[in-house]
Amino acid sequence: MLSLSLWGTTFSGFAALASVEETNLKESILFAFDRDPSVSQQAAQMGIGQAMTDEAKSGWMPQIGLTGSTGHSQTTDSSGSLKNSASWGLTLTQLVYDFGKTNNTIAQSEAQQESYRYELMATLSDVAAKAALGYVEVKRYSKLADAARENIAALENIQQLATLRANAGLSSTSDTLQTQTRIAGMRASLEQYEAALQKAKAVLAVQTGVSAKNYAELPEALEVNQTSVEDIDYSRIPSVLAARSMETSAEFAIKKAKAQHLPTVSLKAGRTRYESDNRAYWDDQIQLSLDAPLYQGGAVSARVRQAEGAKAMAASQVDQARYDVLQEASAAMADWTGARGREDAGKFQLMNAVQTRTVYKNEYTLSKKTINDLLSVEQDVWQATSAKINAEYDGWSAAISYATAIDNLLPLIGIEKHAAEKLPELN
Protein backbone atom coordinates (compact mmCIF):
# COMPACT_ATOMS: atom_id res chain seq x y z
CA MET A 1 0.00 0.00 0.00
CA LEU A 2 1.52 3.32 -1.06
CA SER A 3 1.21 6.15 1.40
CA LEU A 4 2.20 9.78 0.90
CA SER A 5 1.37 12.42 3.48
CA LEU A 6 0.91 16.09 2.66
CA TRP A 7 3.16 17.09 5.52
CA GLY A 8 5.77 14.44 4.86
CA THR A 9 5.22 12.38 7.99
CA THR A 10 4.31 8.98 6.57
CA PHE A 11 6.62 8.40 3.62
CA SER A 12 7.82 4.83 3.54
CA GLY A 13 11.39 5.58 2.39
CA PHE A 14 13.78 2.94 1.06
CA ALA A 15 13.10 -0.73 1.48
CA ALA A 16 14.23 -3.97 -0.09
CA LEU A 17 13.32 -4.44 -3.75
CA ALA A 18 10.04 -6.27 -4.30
CA SER A 19 9.68 -8.82 -7.09
CA VAL A 20 6.47 -8.98 -9.12
CA GLU A 21 5.41 -10.96 -12.16
CA GLU A 22 4.35 -7.94 -14.21
CA THR A 23 4.06 -4.19 -13.83
CA ASN A 24 2.94 -1.31 -16.01
CA LEU A 25 3.90 2.33 -16.41
CA LYS A 26 1.23 3.68 -14.05
CA GLU A 27 2.20 1.31 -11.25
CA SER A 28 5.89 2.06 -11.75
CA ILE A 29 5.28 5.78 -11.38
CA LEU A 30 3.19 5.34 -8.24
CA PHE A 31 5.94 3.20 -6.73
CA ALA A 32 8.47 5.88 -7.69
CA PHE A 33 6.42 8.51 -5.82
CA ASP A 34 6.59 6.39 -2.71
CA ARG A 35 10.34 5.81 -3.03
CA ASP A 36 11.94 9.00 -4.37
CA PRO A 37 13.35 11.14 -1.50
CA SER A 38 12.68 14.39 -3.37
CA VAL A 39 8.93 13.88 -2.94
CA SER A 40 9.16 13.51 0.83
CA GLN A 41 11.59 16.43 1.01
CA GLN A 42 9.21 18.71 -0.86
CA ALA A 43 6.26 17.53 1.21
CA ALA A 44 8.25 18.35 4.34
CA GLN A 45 8.89 21.80 2.86
CA MET A 46 5.12 22.26 2.65
CA GLY A 47 4.91 21.45 6.34
CA ILE A 48 7.46 24.18 7.01
CA GLY A 49 5.37 26.59 4.95
CA GLN A 50 2.25 25.77 6.98
CA ALA A 51 4.18 26.30 10.20
CA MET A 52 5.41 29.68 8.94
CA THR A 53 1.82 30.71 8.21
CA ASP A 54 0.67 29.58 11.66
CA GLU A 55 3.49 31.55 13.23
CA ALA A 56 2.49 34.68 11.31
CA LYS A 57 -1.17 34.29 12.34
CA SER A 58 -0.15 34.02 15.99
CA GLY A 59 0.64 37.74 15.86
CA TRP A 60 -3.07 38.47 16.36
CA MET A 61 -3.35 36.13 19.32
CA PRO A 62 -2.89 37.37 22.91
CA GLN A 63 0.62 36.89 24.23
CA ILE A 64 0.62 35.66 27.82
CA GLY A 65 3.77 35.44 29.89
CA LEU A 66 4.86 34.47 33.40
CA THR A 67 7.48 36.60 35.13
CA GLY A 68 9.49 35.90 38.26
CA SER A 69 12.69 37.05 39.91
CA THR A 70 14.52 36.83 43.21
CA GLY A 71 17.44 38.67 44.73
CA HIS A 72 18.18 42.17 46.03
CA SER A 73 16.26 45.07 44.48
CA GLN A 74 15.93 48.54 46.02
CA THR A 75 13.57 51.33 45.04
CA THR A 76 14.19 54.84 46.40
CA ASP A 77 11.83 57.76 46.07
CA SER A 78 10.80 60.86 48.10
CA SER A 79 9.12 58.71 50.70
CA GLY A 80 12.22 56.63 51.35
CA SER A 81 13.64 53.29 50.23
CA LEU A 82 11.96 49.96 49.64
CA LYS A 83 13.95 46.74 49.38
CA ASN A 84 12.44 43.87 47.37
CA SER A 85 13.58 40.28 47.67
CA ALA A 86 11.31 38.57 45.09
CA SER A 87 8.55 39.22 42.52
CA TRP A 88 6.31 37.20 40.26
CA GLY A 89 3.27 37.75 38.09
CA LEU A 90 1.47 37.46 34.76
CA THR A 91 1.63 39.71 31.71
CA LEU A 92 -0.71 39.91 28.72
CA THR A 93 -0.14 41.74 25.44
CA GLN A 94 -2.79 42.00 22.72
CA LEU A 95 -2.03 43.57 19.36
CA VAL A 96 -4.69 46.14 18.48
CA TYR A 97 -3.50 47.61 15.19
CA ASP A 98 -0.17 47.72 13.38
CA PHE A 99 -1.03 49.23 9.98
CA GLY A 100 -0.72 45.97 8.07
CA LYS A 101 2.51 44.55 9.49
CA THR A 102 0.95 41.32 10.74
CA ASN A 103 -1.59 40.92 7.94
CA ASN A 104 1.09 41.35 5.29
CA THR A 105 3.30 38.84 7.10
CA ILE A 106 0.43 36.34 7.05
CA ALA A 107 -0.26 36.98 3.35
CA GLN A 108 3.44 36.67 2.55
CA SER A 109 3.64 33.29 4.33
CA GLU A 110 0.47 32.01 2.67
CA ALA A 111 1.82 32.90 -0.78
CA GLN A 112 5.10 31.20 0.03
CA GLN A 113 3.25 28.12 1.24
CA GLU A 114 1.30 28.10 -2.04
CA SER A 115 4.61 28.19 -3.90
CA TYR A 116 5.77 25.13 -1.96
CA ARG A 117 2.55 23.36 -2.97
CA TYR A 118 3.22 24.01 -6.65
CA GLU A 119 6.83 22.93 -6.20
CA LEU A 120 5.56 19.62 -4.83
CA MET A 121 3.38 19.21 -7.93
CA ALA A 122 6.39 19.93 -10.14
CA THR A 123 8.45 17.41 -8.17
CA LEU A 124 5.81 14.72 -8.67
CA SER A 125 5.83 15.43 -12.40
CA ASP A 126 9.64 15.24 -12.54
CA VAL A 127 9.72 11.96 -10.61
CA ALA A 128 7.05 10.55 -12.91
CA ALA A 129 9.08 11.61 -15.95
CA LYS A 130 12.25 9.93 -14.66
CA ALA A 131 10.39 6.70 -13.99
CA ALA A 132 8.61 6.85 -17.36
CA LEU A 133 11.85 7.46 -19.27
CA GLY A 134 13.47 4.58 -17.41
CA TYR A 135 10.49 2.39 -18.31
CA VAL A 136 10.91 3.36 -21.98
CA GLU A 137 14.55 2.25 -21.92
CA VAL A 138 13.56 -1.13 -20.51
CA LYS A 139 11.05 -1.59 -23.31
CA ARG A 140 13.54 -0.34 -25.94
CA TYR A 141 16.29 -2.81 -25.09
CA SER A 142 13.78 -5.61 -24.59
CA LYS A 143 12.51 -5.09 -28.14
CA LEU A 144 16.03 -4.75 -29.56
CA ALA A 145 17.08 -7.98 -27.85
CA ASP A 146 14.01 -9.77 -29.26
CA ALA A 147 14.77 -8.40 -32.73
CA ALA A 148 18.39 -9.57 -32.44
CA ARG A 149 17.18 -13.07 -31.56
CA GLU A 150 14.88 -13.05 -34.59
CA ASN A 151 17.78 -11.99 -36.79
CA ILE A 152 19.96 -14.78 -35.39
CA ALA A 153 17.15 -17.26 -36.12
CA ALA A 154 16.95 -15.94 -39.70
CA LEU A 155 20.71 -16.27 -40.12
CA GLU A 156 20.62 -19.80 -38.76
CA ASN A 157 17.96 -20.60 -41.33
CA ILE A 158 20.30 -19.29 -44.03
CA GLN A 159 23.11 -21.39 -42.55
CA GLN A 160 20.99 -24.52 -42.83
CA LEU A 161 20.21 -23.67 -46.43
CA ALA A 162 23.89 -23.02 -47.20
CA THR A 163 24.89 -26.32 -45.57
CA LEU A 164 22.32 -28.24 -47.60
CA ARG A 165 23.57 -26.63 -50.82
CA ALA A 166 27.21 -27.29 -49.88
CA ASN A 167 26.45 -30.95 -49.12
CA ALA A 168 24.71 -31.22 -52.47
CA GLY A 169 27.73 -29.70 -54.23
CA LEU A 170 25.76 -26.63 -55.35
CA SER A 171 27.95 -24.16 -53.41
CA SER A 172 31.18 -24.10 -51.45
CA THR A 173 31.54 -24.57 -47.72
CA SER A 174 32.64 -20.93 -47.49
CA ASP A 175 28.96 -20.00 -47.66
CA THR A 176 28.42 -21.81 -44.39
CA LEU A 177 31.50 -20.21 -42.83
CA GLN A 178 30.43 -16.73 -43.87
CA THR A 179 27.02 -17.29 -42.34
CA GLN A 180 28.56 -18.57 -39.10
CA THR A 181 30.70 -15.43 -38.90
CA ARG A 182 27.61 -13.23 -39.30
CA ILE A 183 25.75 -15.24 -36.64
CA ALA A 184 28.64 -14.80 -34.20
CA GLY A 185 28.53 -11.05 -34.78
CA MET A 186 24.81 -10.89 -34.12
CA ARG A 187 25.20 -12.94 -30.96
CA ALA A 188 27.74 -10.40 -29.74
CA SER A 189 25.19 -7.65 -30.48
CA LEU A 190 22.56 -9.63 -28.59
CA GLU A 191 24.84 -9.80 -25.55
CA GLN A 192 25.24 -6.03 -25.67
CA TYR A 193 21.49 -5.52 -25.79
CA GLU A 194 20.97 -8.00 -22.97
CA ALA A 195 23.51 -6.13 -20.84
CA ALA A 196 21.85 -2.79 -21.65
CA LEU A 197 18.47 -4.32 -20.76
CA GLN A 198 19.69 -5.53 -17.38
CA LYS A 199 21.16 -2.10 -16.67
CA ALA A 200 17.90 -0.36 -17.61
CA LYS A 201 15.95 -2.76 -15.38
CA ALA A 202 18.35 -2.14 -12.51
CA VAL A 203 17.98 1.65 -12.84
CA LEU A 204 14.18 1.39 -12.95
CA ALA A 205 14.19 -0.98 -9.97
CA VAL A 206 16.13 1.58 -7.93
CA GLN A 207 13.65 4.28 -8.94
CA THR A 208 10.56 2.23 -8.12
CA GLY A 209 11.72 -0.37 -5.62
CA VAL A 210 10.13 -3.06 -7.79
CA SER A 211 11.75 -5.64 -10.04
CA ALA A 212 9.38 -7.20 -12.58
CA LYS A 213 9.71 -10.14 -14.93
CA ASN A 214 7.42 -8.54 -17.51
CA TYR A 215 6.70 -4.91 -18.38
CA ALA A 216 3.39 -4.04 -20.00
CA GLU A 217 3.22 -1.99 -23.19
CA LEU A 218 3.23 1.79 -22.96
CA PRO A 219 -0.20 3.47 -22.96
CA GLU A 220 -1.23 4.74 -26.38
CA ALA A 221 -2.56 7.97 -24.85
CA LEU A 222 1.00 9.25 -24.49
CA GLU A 223 1.43 9.77 -28.22
CA VAL A 224 -1.80 11.66 -28.90
CA ASN A 225 -3.08 15.16 -28.14
CA GLN A 226 0.26 16.81 -28.87
CA THR A 227 -0.54 20.52 -28.56
CA SER A 228 1.27 23.22 -30.47
CA VAL A 229 3.84 25.06 -28.38
CA GLU A 230 2.01 28.25 -29.29
CA ASP A 231 -1.01 27.04 -27.29
CA ILE A 232 0.74 26.13 -24.03
CA ASP A 233 -1.38 27.11 -21.03
CA TYR A 234 1.21 28.49 -18.62
CA SER A 235 -1.47 29.18 -16.00
CA ARG A 236 -1.59 25.46 -15.11
CA ILE A 237 2.12 24.60 -15.11
CA PRO A 238 3.43 24.16 -11.54
CA SER A 239 6.88 25.68 -12.09
CA VAL A 240 5.31 28.89 -13.45
CA LEU A 241 2.66 28.95 -10.71
CA ALA A 242 5.34 28.47 -8.05
CA ALA A 243 7.31 31.42 -9.42
CA ARG A 244 4.17 33.58 -9.51
CA SER A 245 3.36 32.69 -5.92
CA MET A 246 6.85 33.73 -4.88
CA GLU A 247 6.34 37.01 -6.76
CA THR A 248 3.11 37.54 -4.82
CA SER A 249 4.93 36.74 -1.58
CA ALA A 250 7.56 39.35 -2.48
CA GLU A 251 4.84 41.96 -3.03
CA PHE A 252 3.51 41.42 0.48
CA ALA A 253 7.08 41.56 1.79
CA ILE A 254 7.37 45.08 0.35
CA LYS A 255 4.13 46.16 2.03
CA LYS A 256 5.30 44.65 5.31
CA ALA A 257 8.63 46.47 5.09
CA LYS A 258 6.95 49.81 4.32
CA ALA A 259 4.61 49.34 7.30
CA GLN A 260 7.66 49.41 9.59
CA HIS A 261 7.56 53.21 9.21
CA LEU A 262 4.16 53.26 10.96
CA PRO A 263 3.33 52.78 14.66
CA THR A 264 2.02 49.69 16.43
CA VAL A 265 -0.80 49.90 18.95
CA SER A 266 -1.07 47.22 21.64
CA LEU A 267 -3.02 46.62 24.81
CA LYS A 268 -0.80 45.57 27.71
CA ALA A 269 -1.96 44.26 31.08
CA GLY A 270 -0.18 42.72 34.02
CA ARG A 271 -0.39 41.76 37.65
CA THR A 272 2.84 41.45 39.63
CA ARG A 273 3.43 40.46 43.27
CA TYR A 274 6.38 42.06 45.06
CA GLU A 275 7.91 40.80 48.32
CA SER A 276 9.66 43.64 50.18
CA ASP A 277 11.63 43.84 53.42
CA ASN A 278 8.65 44.98 55.50
CA ARG A 279 5.56 44.21 53.43
CA ALA A 280 4.20 42.55 50.26
CA TYR A 281 2.01 44.19 47.63
CA TRP A 282 0.48 43.75 44.17
CA ASP A 283 1.18 45.98 41.16
CA ASP A 284 -1.69 45.93 38.60
CA GLN A 285 -1.57 47.64 35.21
CA ILE A 286 -3.63 47.90 32.02
CA GLN A 287 -2.36 50.28 29.35
CA LEU A 288 -2.77 51.13 25.70
CA SER A 289 0.73 51.16 24.28
CA LEU A 290 1.90 53.03 21.17
CA ASP A 291 5.23 52.11 19.62
CA ALA A 292 6.17 54.58 16.88
CA PRO A 293 9.62 54.51 15.26
CA LEU A 294 11.13 57.94 14.65
CA TYR A 295 14.62 57.17 13.41
CA GLN A 296 16.34 53.82 12.89
CA GLY A 297 19.38 54.85 10.89
CA GLY A 298 17.76 54.02 7.54
CA ALA A 299 17.16 50.36 8.44
CA VAL A 300 13.51 50.38 7.37
CA SER A 301 14.23 52.03 4.04
CA ALA A 302 16.98 49.48 3.44
CA ARG A 303 14.52 46.64 4.15
CA VAL A 304 12.09 48.14 1.64
CA ARG A 305 14.79 48.26 -1.03
CA GLN A 306 15.73 44.65 -0.27
CA ALA A 307 12.09 43.58 -0.62
CA GLU A 308 11.74 45.47 -3.90
CA GLY A 309 14.87 43.76 -5.20
CA ALA A 310 13.47 40.38 -4.15
CA LYS A 311 10.25 41.13 -6.06
CA ALA A 312 12.20 42.04 -9.19
CA MET A 313 14.05 38.74 -8.93
CA ALA A 314 10.79 36.86 -8.41
CA ALA A 315 9.28 38.52 -11.48
CA SER A 316 12.29 37.46 -13.57
CA GLN A 317 11.91 33.91 -12.23
CA VAL A 318 8.37 33.84 -13.63
CA ASP A 319 9.75 34.76 -17.05
CA GLN A 320 12.52 32.19 -16.60
CA ALA A 321 9.99 29.47 -15.76
CA ARG A 322 7.94 30.29 -18.87
CA TYR A 323 11.10 30.33 -20.96
CA ASP A 324 12.23 26.94 -19.62
CA VAL A 325 8.82 25.40 -20.31
CA LEU A 326 8.76 26.75 -23.87
CA GLN A 327 12.31 25.58 -24.52
CA GLU A 328 11.72 22.08 -23.15
CA ALA A 329 8.37 21.71 -24.93
CA SER A 330 9.76 22.95 -28.24
CA ALA A 331 12.75 20.60 -28.10
CA ALA A 332 10.54 17.65 -27.13
CA MET A 333 8.05 18.41 -29.89
CA ALA A 334 10.86 18.57 -32.45
CA ASP A 335 12.27 15.27 -31.17
CA TRP A 336 8.83 13.67 -31.28
CA THR A 337 8.16 14.84 -34.84
CA GLY A 338 11.58 13.67 -35.99
CA ALA A 339 11.21 10.30 -34.30
CA ARG A 340 7.82 9.70 -35.88
CA GLY A 341 9.26 10.58 -39.29
CA ARG A 342 12.16 8.16 -38.77
CA GLU A 343 9.76 5.48 -37.59
CA ASP A 344 7.64 5.82 -40.74
CA ALA A 345 10.78 5.68 -42.87
CA GLY A 346 11.95 2.62 -40.94
CA LYS A 347 8.65 0.85 -41.56
CA PHE A 348 8.91 1.47 -45.29
CA GLN A 349 12.56 0.39 -45.34
CA LEU A 350 11.73 -2.78 -43.38
CA MET A 351 8.85 -3.68 -45.68
CA ASN A 352 11.11 -3.40 -48.75
CA ALA A 353 13.93 -5.31 -47.07
CA VAL A 354 11.62 -8.17 -46.07
CA GLN A 355 10.26 -8.41 -49.64
CA THR A 356 13.79 -8.36 -51.04
CA ARG A 357 14.87 -11.07 -48.61
CA THR A 358 12.12 -13.38 -49.83
CA VAL A 359 13.11 -12.84 -53.45
CA TYR A 360 16.84 -13.24 -52.76
CA LYS A 361 16.26 -16.42 -50.78
CA ASN A 362 14.39 -17.99 -53.67
CA GLU A 363 17.02 -16.86 -56.15
CA TYR A 364 19.85 -18.18 -53.93
CA THR A 365 18.14 -21.55 -53.97
CA LEU A 366 18.20 -21.38 -57.76
CA SER A 367 21.86 -20.24 -57.72
CA LYS A 368 20.94 -16.82 -59.13
CA LYS A 369 22.16 -14.97 -56.01
CA THR A 370 25.25 -15.50 -53.89
CA ILE A 371 25.43 -15.98 -50.14
CA ASN A 372 26.79 -12.44 -49.87
CA ASP A 373 23.63 -11.12 -51.49
CA LEU A 374 21.51 -13.05 -49.03
CA LEU A 375 23.54 -11.98 -46.00
CA SER A 376 23.55 -8.38 -47.20
CA VAL A 377 19.77 -8.19 -47.44
CA GLU A 378 19.49 -9.87 -44.04
CA GLN A 379 21.70 -7.08 -42.71
CA ASP A 380 19.33 -4.57 -44.33
CA VAL A 381 16.40 -6.21 -42.54
CA TRP A 382 18.23 -5.96 -39.21
CA GLN A 383 19.22 -2.33 -39.73
CA ALA A 384 15.66 -1.37 -40.71
CA THR A 385 14.24 -3.25 -37.72
CA SER A 386 16.62 -1.72 -35.19
CA ALA A 387 16.19 1.76 -36.69
CA LYS A 388 12.41 1.42 -36.49
CA ILE A 389 12.56 0.26 -32.84
CA ASN A 390 14.91 3.07 -31.80
CA ALA A 391 12.78 5.65 -33.59
CA GLU A 392 9.64 4.29 -31.92
CA TYR A 393 11.07 4.56 -28.42
CA ASP A 394 12.76 7.89 -29.15
CA GLY A 395 9.23 9.04 -29.95
CA TRP A 396 7.93 7.67 -26.64
CA SER A 397 10.73 9.49 -24.76
CA ALA A 398 10.00 12.75 -26.59
CA ALA A 399 6.25 12.41 -25.89
CA ILE A 400 6.98 11.92 -22.19
CA SER A 401 9.32 14.93 -22.13
CA TYR A 402 6.70 17.08 -23.88
CA ALA A 403 3.90 15.98 -21.58
CA THR A 404 6.15 16.68 -18.58
CA ALA A 405 6.99 20.16 -19.86
CA ILE A 406 3.32 21.14 -20.14
CA ASP A 407 2.33 19.28 -16.92
CA ASN A 408 0.14 16.75 -18.70
CA LEU A 409 2.04 13.53 -18.02
CA LEU A 410 0.09 12.27 -15.00
CA PRO A 411 -3.38 12.71 -16.55
CA LEU A 412 -2.26 10.98 -19.77
CA ILE A 413 -1.04 7.98 -17.81
CA GLY A 414 -4.25 7.89 -15.80
CA ILE A 415 -2.97 9.19 -12.46
CA GLU A 416 -5.24 11.73 -10.81
CA LYS A 417 -3.67 14.36 -8.59
CA HIS A 418 -6.29 13.40 -5.97
CA ALA A 419 -5.32 9.71 -6.03
CA ALA A 420 -6.69 9.09 -2.55
CA GLU A 421 -4.01 7.76 -0.25
CA LYS A 422 -1.48 7.44 -3.03
CA LEU A 423 -0.89 11.15 -3.65
CA PRO A 424 -0.95 14.33 -1.57
CA GLU A 425 -3.97 16.59 -1.85
CA LEU A 426 -2.81 19.09 -4.44
CA ASN A 427 -5.80 21.31 -5.16
UniProtKB/TrEMBL annotation:
<keyword id="KW-0812">Transmembrane</keyword>
<dbReference type="GO" id="GO:0015288">
    <property type="term" value="F:porin activity"/>
</dbReference>
<keyword id="KW-0472">Membrane</keyword>
<feature type="region of interest" description="Disordered">
    <location>
        <begin position="63"/>
        <end position="84"/>
    </location>
</feature>
<keyword id="KW-0813">Transport</keyword>
<dbReference type="InterPro" id="IPR010130">
    <property type="entry name" value="T1SS_OMP_TolC"/>
</dbReference>
<keyword id="KW-1134">Transmembrane beta strand</keyword>
<dbReference type="GO" id="GO:0009279">
    <property type="term" value="C:cell outer membrane"/>
</dbReference>
<dbReference type="InterPro" id="IPR003423">
    <property type="entry name" value="OMP_efflux"/>
</dbReference>
<keyword id="KW-0998">Cell outer membrane</keyword>
<comment type="similarity">
    <text>Belongs to the outer membrane factor (OMF) (TC 1.B.17) family.</text>
</comment>
<dbReference type="Pfam" id="PF02321">
    <property type="entry name" value="OEP"/>
</dbReference>
<feature type="compositionally biased region" description="Polar residues">
    <location>
        <begin position="66"/>
        <end position="84"/>
    </location>
</feature>
<dbReference type="GO" id="GO:1990281">
    <property type="term" value="C:efflux pump complex"/>
</dbReference>
<protein>
    <submittedName>
        <fullName>Agglutination protein</fullName>
    </submittedName>
</protein>
<dbReference type="GO" id="GO:0015562">
    <property type="term" value="F:efflux transmembrane transporter activity"/>
</dbReference>
<dbReference type="InterPro" id="IPR051906">
    <property type="entry name" value="TolC-like"/>
</dbReference>
